[in-house]
């Protein structure tokens, strides 16, 4: 019997950040389902591929930011969303809070904080 790996979507427009995240997640036994640099690509993917959690940067490529992408994701799926961003200004945080994220982590992130946030988000999603 094979154990199903948790599939995580990464929405991050900085390639080095995305690769570092992928490496961290795989080291902890997660599967990176997709690395996207824009909301349109992420939304197309989750509309036909199973994903267990999404890590979203807020300032990304394309005509919608990570928060707008999160709103559209909620129309398609109920997966937990964790923001991973360098932006902490009040307006950005307020907008992000309205999407009811599982967590809001700032860059540079601590690996343990990221993994703990993912685990808590997944546990809460399965209640």
TrEMBL record:
Residues that bear 4-aspartylphosphate: 57
Domain annotation Response regulatory: ranges: 7-122
Cited SUPFAM superfamilies: CheY-like
Keywords: Phosphoprotein
GO biological process terms on file: phosphorelay signal transduction system
Listed PROSITE patterns: RESPONSE_REGULATORY (PS50110)
PANTHER family: RESPONSE REGULATORY DOMAIN-CONTAINING PROTEIN (PTHR44591:SF3), STRESS RESPONSE REGULATOR PROTEIN 1 (PTHR44591)
Protein's recorded name: Response regulator
């Amino acid at each position: 019997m094979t154990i199903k790996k948790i599939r995580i979507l990464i929405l991050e427009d900085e390639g080095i950040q995305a690769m570092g995240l992928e490496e961290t997640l795989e080291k902890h036994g997660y599967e990176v389902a997709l690395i996207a640099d824009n909301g349109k690509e992420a939304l197309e993917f989750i509309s036909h591929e199973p994903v267990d959690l999404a890590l979203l940067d807020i300032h990304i490529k394309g005509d919608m930011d990570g928060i707008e992408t999160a709103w559209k994701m909620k129309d398609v799926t109920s997966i937990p969303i964790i923001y991973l961003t360098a932006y902490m200004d009040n307006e950005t945080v307020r907008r992000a809070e309205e999407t009811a994220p599982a967590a809001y982590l700032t860059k540079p992130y601590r690996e343990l904080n990221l993994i703990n946030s993912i685990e808590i988000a997944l546990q809460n999603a399965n209640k």
